[in-house]
């Protein structure tokens, strides 16, 4: 009988312990519900922030994946237009090239008459192995992107003091890219800092041209990064 009494007491103690545990667990759930309810706005904001971060990460990853390692331009620093003057050559439709769109956008911001000629800057730069940003940047410094020049000269680059006339915009772009390749790059002037002292007398020429190159490059990076918008 004594053992039975002890067992009864033990069972009673276990039941009481279970009841207390159940009560604490119930209270804990209630607290969680209350916290979640009170912080619903913060929770929603946190969720939106996380979605934005995931979206940006995917977009960045996609853009980097799209930049083919065989393209020599990928070896330049994305924000460093002062890097070695190299070109990207391939057989894709030049009109769809992101570089062309980057030049177009910069020209449009400055109300340039060269907007429709943007493709030629990339086409002839690739042909002669010149940095595609260089001549558009020179036009920005020498003629405010083609808005201030000798009428009918198609010379937006200060070539020959701005007094040399070309038959068309394309003719000028072709001629000067070829000259840059043969008279500058081929002779060891491989960046804007080395070209500057030969191209112009002004000691600030290279600095100012480099500034325009960086603007074009920044636009190229922006377009490349957000070329594809993933859906979340």
Tell me the helix content: 55-70%
> So, CATH architecture of the largest domain?
Orthogonal Bundle
What order do the SSEs take from the amino end to the carboxyl end, as H and E?
HHHHHHHH
CATH fold-level label of the largest domain: Lysozyme
| Biggest sheet features | none
Envelope shape: elongated
Uncertain residue ranges? 67-84, 86-91
SSE layout:
Elements: H1 2-38, H2 40-66, H3 98-109, H4 118-128, H5 134-143, H6 169-183, H7 192-199, H8 205-225
Helix pairs in contact: 3-4, 3-8, 4-6, 5-8, 7-8
Report what the structure shows.
- The chain has 232 residues and is mainly alpha-helical.
- The protein has two domains: 2-65; 69-225, Lysozyme (Orthogonal Bundle), CATH 1.10.530.
- Helix content is 61%, strand content 0%.
- The protein has eight helices and no strands.
- It has helices spanning 2-38, 40-66, 98-109, 118-128, 134-143, 169-183, 192-199, 205-225.
- Helix 3 crosses helix 4 (118-128), helix 4 packs parallel to helix 6 and helix 7 (192-199) packs antiparallel against helix 8 (205-225).
- Mean pLDDT is 77; it is low at 67-84 and 86-91.
Q: Which key terms come to mind for this protein?
A:
mainly alpha; 232 residues; Lysozyme; elongated
């Amino acid at each position: 009988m004594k053992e039975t009494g002890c067992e009864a007491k033990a069972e009673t103690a276990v039941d009481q312990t279970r009841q207390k545990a159940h009560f604490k667990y119930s209270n804990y759930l209630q607290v969680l519900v209350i916290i979640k309810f009170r912080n619903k706005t913060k929770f929603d904001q946190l969720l939106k922030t996380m979605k934005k971060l995931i979206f940006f990460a995917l977009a960045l990853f996609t853009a980097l994946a799209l930049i083919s390692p065989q393209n020599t331009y990928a070896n330049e620093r994305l924000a460093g237009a002062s890097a070695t003057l190299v070109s990207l050559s391939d057989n894709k439709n030049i009109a769809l090239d992101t570089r062309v769109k980057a030049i177009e956008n910069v020209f449009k911001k400055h109300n340039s008459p060269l907007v429709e000629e943007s493709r030629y800057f990339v086409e002839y730069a690739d042909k002669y192995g010149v940095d595609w940003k260089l001549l558009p940047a020179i036009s920005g410094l020498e003629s405010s992107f083609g808005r201030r020049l000798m009428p009918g000269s198609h010379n937006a680059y200060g070539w020959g003091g701005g007094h040399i006339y070309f038959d068309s915009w394309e003719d000028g772009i072709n001629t000067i890219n070829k000259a840059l390749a043969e008279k500058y790059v081929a002779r060891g002037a491989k960046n804007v800092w080395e070209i500057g002292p030969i191209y112009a007398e002004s000691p600030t020429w290279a600095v100012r041209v480099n500034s325009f190159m960086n603007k074009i490059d920044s636009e190229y990076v922006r377009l490349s990064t957000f070329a594809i918008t993933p859906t979340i």
